Amino acid sequence: MQEAYRNLVDYCRNRGLQYIYFTTADLGRETGSDDQQEVQFLIKNNPELTPVFTAGIGTVYKIAPAPGTPAATASNRATP
Question: Which domain holds residue 45?
C-alpha cells in the first residue's frame, strides 16, 4: 500500500491530473494503523504536493509539474 502512495505523483502525471483529493478516511478499510500513518506522512511530506484547500478530514493537493515540462519551467520563473 505504501509503495502506491510513494509513486502517487508519477501516477497522477501520467494521467494528466493536476490535483488530487486525499482523505484520512480513504485508508481505513484497506490498511492497518501503521500503514495509515505512513501513507499520511508520505502525502503530507511530499514536496511535489502542495495543499491548496483543507476541510475536515480531506485536503486538495496541487501536483507539481514534471521537471523540464513547459508548465514546470513557467512556474519556476521569477515574477517581475
Answer: 2-66
Give the total number of structural domains in the chain: 1
Q: What tens-digit pLDDT sequence spans the chain (80 residues)?
A: 676 778 889 999 999 999 999 988 877 666 767 778 888 888 999 999 999 999 998 999 999 998 877 765 555 444 44
Q: How many CB atoms lie within 10 A of CB 36?
A: 17
CATH for 9: 1.10.10
In a domain, 77, yes or no: no
